Amino acid sequence: MSRKKTLLLALLSITVLAILVAGVMRWQLKQGRSTPPPVGNPVLNGDIAPAPGLPRGFVVWSSNRYGNHDILRMQLPQRKISRLTQHPHTEYFPRIAPNGQAIVFARSQVPWVSQRNQVPWDVILLDLNNGQERLLAKNGNTPTWSADGSHVYFQRNNTQFVEINVKTGQERTLYTSGTGDIRDGAVLQTPHYDARSGRVAVTLRGAQHKIGIMDLNGKFTRIADGCQLTWSKQGDFLYYIDYGGRMKNALYRYDPEKGESRLWMDIPGEFSHEYFPKLSNDERYLVYGASSGGHEHDSADYEIFLWKLGTPLTEVTRLSFHTGNDNWPDVYIDPENN
Cα separation of 271 and 290, whole Å? Predict the structure, then answer.
């Protein structure tokens, strides 16, 4: 064999090996971490001091600062943190009931599950008044509430969108991938239902990769390629995360009547990789997570921030100060708050 052919074969082997390695790395990334991330350390000594101008209410989120992901609560304006759960399994995606008296969240079926593995989870209901938990739904993930608090919606086994009556436990599957414009096997990430229009804001992954609005027959309107698409309370706009910010991510707002998106928030400063946006019950505040560059949902050093809509982005309040992983916050504002 000539030297030239030997060199070409060597280059071809290196190229094939590089492609295989890249493929394995992409596969591993999609599977998420196989072990829990480091718990990190506090950034501040002692309690977080109250901040002027914060409203009365509370924030909940998932944090691994105690060794695994528990659900935490911060009272506002005091900024006092307490643990709502102390379970050995992973917990995330807490969502506050419309009356502020309970939360639902996802709990893994084994001690550690990465959020990238969206199947082995259950939906838990927690009464914030007495601390009592109830298994609301098996094999459920990313739960959200109906406007009146009577029902919870969630994703099951990647491809189903399910409704459950909180009082009776009666379930109804509203949609399964493979109908209409949604391909068979498409993953329905963080589905969020607008009962007024009967449409679901959804991030599609797996067989399809885009975000948009679908009806319960699978008719789909594409919005962008980002994630975490969420309806406003009145269904008059949606918001989502997409590329284009200072640190790759930014928050966008979409008008479904005009079919137009616009940049809504891209925070200046060190923490500008925005993620996990959630409007408050009164839609006067937005709580979100942001990192200084890390991206992974359940391992990057995300901090929790609160923004009063309409105020300068330089006035955003940082709520958490910990190098562990803090994610998926929600915020409830006291209706009597001025």
Answer: 5
